UniProtKB/TrEMBL annotation:
Saccharopine dehydrogenase-like C-terminal domain boundaries: 89-419
Species assigned in the record: Heracleum sosnowskyi
Keyword field: Membrane, NADP, Oxidoreductase, Transmembrane, Transmembrane helix
InterPro entries tied to this protein: AASS, NAD(P)-bd_dom_sf, Sacchrp_dh-like_C, Sacchrp_dh_NADP-bd
Name of the protein: Alpha-aminoadipic semialdehyde synthase
Lineage of origin: Eukaryota, Viridiplantae, Streptophyta, Embryophyta, Tracheophyta
Saccharopine dehydrogenase NADP binding domain location: 10-85
GO cellular component: cytoplasm
Transmembrane parts of this sequence: 374-391
Length: 427
């Protein structure tokens, strides 16, 4: 509520209010007073809000994926004459807009998309990547870790590749963006890429369809090793059940199977942890064990401090420490990188054309306060969607994604006008 009140200062006709969206009467009361609703709540609440919007014939914009429960509201929304514009954020959102602009333009020239690859990552800016993971959280560590353990599917040279969730971190590969060669990045496959073949109308022409998540190089090997140690196990751990609270060091020794509890000394802690990780066969290289040990120490997962009672699993404990230790200071910036690569064949025998589009954006520091790039690149597209609906620029009703020219053309213009640098290259 305090943040909401601060945000609306100086904005006419703005009111801050706090409501329970599951209270239908209160929700409908507020929805009835506006022309467009923007929901940035967790996705599980969007259907409740959408039904209120349909009932009261008000447009809705969200930045979340359109799932089956939202798709089922397509006909009711059309009957109400309203637009529910979903996936209007960064990823999904700006990625759709840039991809469809490139694909539609290629198709208009008679081209055939033979390869579509897309990469996106929210990262610390280089100067803020000052920990062993080279990563910080601008959103929930629990959500980020769960996302990093989802299975993935993609198509590579007409071969469908499946990656199990448990193997996702280990599937990370080094990646360089031609237009940003200074960044040492790696890429992890991102969920089911094949659905984008149908969504973008290239499923029958592209032999490669791949979507990936970007991290700084080395992230996957450390997180994969931590997963094998057991730091991301969600079951209740015996030593964390009710009773005397163990220390972080106690849990670490349990996970490293040190029955004697004398593995970790006081003078060579990093070496002791790394040696144990490597001896247990939890990683292939001793360098990886050392980098993982550095991460464990940085997070304080070896310290003789009691674990809070709220932590019932190793996963809870790890997330708690990450929320404490992997956060941005008030003067640190995050960074967003979005990159598409298309390979296009033309029927008249022209040489294959390669096209690239890149968005590189940093958080903004103003008056000693940082607004994250993640917030801007998710929030501003949603705001643009609301403006387009208010101006009646979007005519299509029902459930809509920003994959159509009536949405992406004006939206990309707005984004550029706001200062986002959307770089496009051919070569």
């Amino acid at each position: 509520m305090k943040d909401a009140e601060e945000i609306i200062k100086g904005i006419p006709n703005a009111t801050a209010a706090q409501i329970d969206v599951m209270d239908s009467e209160s929700l409908c009361n507020y929805v009835s007073q506006v022309d467009v609703v923007i929901s940035l709540l967790p996705p599980s609440f969007h259907c409740t809000i959408a039904k209120a919007c349909i009932k009261l014939k008000k447009h809705l914009v969200t930045a979340s994926y359109v799932d089956d429960s939202m798709s089922n509201l397509d006909e009711p929304a059309k009957d109400a004459g309203i637009t529910i514009l979903g996936e209007m954020g960064l990823d999904p959102g700006i990625d759709h807009m840039l991809a469809m602009k490139m694909i539609d333009e290629a198709h208009a020239r008679g081209g055939r998309i033979t390869s579509f690859t897309s990469y996106c990552g929210g990262l610390p800016s280089p100067e803020a990547a000052n920990n062993p993971l080279a990563y910080k959280f601008s959103w929930s560590p629990a959500g980020a870790i769960r996302a990093g353990r989802n299975p993935a599917t993609y198509r590579l040279q007409d071969e469908v590749v499946h990656v199990n969730g448990d193997d996702l971190y280990d599937s990370a590969t080094k990646f360089r963006i031609p237009d940003l060669p200074a960044f040492a990045l790696e890429c992890l496959p991102n969920r089911n890429s094949l659905v984008y073949g149908d969504l973008y109308g290239i499923g029958n022409e592209a032999s490669t369809i791949f979507r990936g998540t970007l991290r700084y190089e080395g992230f996957g090997e450390i997180m994969g090793t931590m997963a094998r140690i057991g730091f991301f196990e969600t079951h209740v751990h015996p030593i964390l059940e009710n009773g005397k609270r163990p220390t972080y060091k106690n849990l670490l020794l349990e996970l490293l199977k040190d029955e004697e509890k004398n593995l970790i000394g006081t003078t060579h802690v990093e070496e002791d942890i790394a040696r144990r990780i490597f001896s247990l066969g939890l990683c292939k290289e001793h360098g990886t064990a050392t980098r993982t040990a550095k991460t464990i120490i940085f997070l304080g997962l070896n310290e003789p401090e009691e674990i809070p009672a709220s932590c019932q699993s190793a996963f809870d404990t790890t997330c708690f420490r990450m929320e404490e230790r992997l956060v941005y200071s008030s003067t640190e910036r995050d960074m967003v990188i979005l990159h598409h690569e298309l390979e296009i064949n033309f029927p008249d025998g022209q040489a294959t054309e390669n096209q690239r589009a890149t968005l590189l954006d940093y958080g903004r520091i103003k008056n000693g306060k940082t607004t994250t790039s993640m917030a801007l690149t998710v929030g501003i597209p949603a705001a643009i969607g609301a403006l387009l609906l208010l101006a009646k620029k979007i005519k299509t009703t029902g459930i809509l994604r920003p994959i159509y020219p009536e949405v992406y053309e004006p939206a990309l213009e707005h984004l550029r006008a706001y200062g986002f640098k959307l770089q496009e290259e051919t070569g």
